[in-house]
Amino acid sequence: MREQHFSPPVIVIGAGIVGASTASFLALAGTPVRLLDASTPASGATGAADGAVSVASKRPGPMMTMARAGAALYRELAEEGLFQGLFHRRPTFLVATSDAEAEVLSDHSKALAEVGAPVRWLTRDMVADRLALLSRKTVAVLEVEDEGHAIGYSIVSRLISAAGLKVERNSPVAALEYDGRSGLVSGVRVGDAVIEASAVVVAAGGGAGKLIGLPDVSRPRRGQQLVTERAPALNAGLPGSLLSCSYLLSKKHQGAQVDARGYGVVIDPLDTGQFLIGSTREEGRTIPENDIEAVAHLAASAADMVPALGRLRILRCFAGIRTAICDGLPMVGRMPGVDNLFVAAGFEGDGICLGPLTGRIVADLVRGEEPEVDVSPFDPGRFAGRSIAA
Ligand SMILES: Cc1cc2nc3c(=O)[nH]c(=O)nc-3n(C[C@H](O)[C@H](O)[C@H](O)COP(=O)(O)OP(=O)(O)OC[C@H]3O[C@@H](n4cnc5c(N)ncnc54)[C@H](O)[C@@H]3O)c2cc1C
């Protein structure tokens, strides 16, 4: 480990799950840190997410590998106490309703097994026993263990209070400031003021690209969701979340959607006895609002998968904006040519699962320590030629 001195403090921009995790792990390691947000903690995608901590839903490759480590960290922190009561461990069931979908699942199960995820096909008897609520149209079910669920804003709140941090709200960073001689980042501009920093972490979700001079690499993708009324008996009949094959496909074909609104169904039995049902993947949509067509489609698809859900009332709907990077991978790491500038953004639909792990990794990078996971596939240097600022 390199001896580091952090005066003035490190500045983390963005108090979503990624920035809050980074700032908290820095603070818990004794590094002075300030956490700034343009609005309030978890006011971006983090506050509008479902909360699946899931390897099952990831695309094969580095995201699946990283998710395995991300889910392991949730389990570890739940046992240690930091996430106690917030992380609910349970399996995910991937559901196919046609032979073609079963084939997709078969390929996916091999990729999951390769990263060591515990998977097993449920027999007809097992489905009847454990998932009796499922529609008779079900052709195949793959169970993935070691998964779980966590509400993003609760995790943010826990991290901030555990580290004794005070979020500097309503502090939109307009630009980064650089030292003309060294080329290092020297601070951030908020309104007319410049706040000095020994290092800066840009964890600003959809606002990150502009700050690091890469405004064109990220794109917004809206997700609409709904929550049903409480139905404890029904809820108890679902031992984990259900994920349709179309959801897997909508993630796999990011940017070239299988249908225009990227419909896919996830049914999450919540602790409250309600069901959270999501979601759409709407390319280029920046306004977090719902429309009747999408909500009706999601409700009908959920009832198609679990007919008993068709009897429940919808209590509320909400929407959030995911930030996706054009090549489908987030940016995590040091900015090329600027030793004290780091970025962690572009987690699309995976940031609740990957946020705490990313925060720990970026905190290690800032402190000059070797991170526990190889993040080279997410190196922001892959866009070096496209940089227009700094
Ligand atoms: C509908 C939906 C469902 C989802 N479901 C899941 C799921 O089941 N599992 C999962 O793992 N992930 C899920 N996600 C994805 C997850 O929510 C995101 O990947 C994650 O929250 C991203 O976190 P973040 O901290 O990078 O960004 P954000 O939460 O967007 O936080 C960025 C913060 O930066 C601040 N900011 C922006 N610009 C500036 C600036 N210039 N100065 C200061 N502050 C700034 C914003 O105010 C914001 O608070 C879902 C997302 C949506 C929308």
From TrEMBL:
GO MF entries: oxidoreductase activity
Domain of life from the UniProt record: Bacteria
Gene3D superfamilies on file: D-Amino Acid Oxidase, subunit A, domain 2, FAD/NAD(P)-binding domain
Lineage: Bacteria, Pseudomonadati, Pseudomonadota, Alphaproteobacteria, Hyphomicrobiales
Domain FAD dependent oxidoreductase: 10-365
Alphabetical list of PANTHER family matching this protein: FAD-DEPENDENT OXIDOREDUCTASE DOMAIN-CONTAINING PROTEIN 1 (PTHR13847:SF287), SARCOSINE DEHYDROGENASE-RELATED (PTHR13847)
A GO-annotated cellular component: cytoplasm
A Pfam family assignment: DAO
Protein name, UniProt field: FAD-dependent oxidoreductase
Keywords: Oxidoreductase
Organism: Rhizobium meliloti
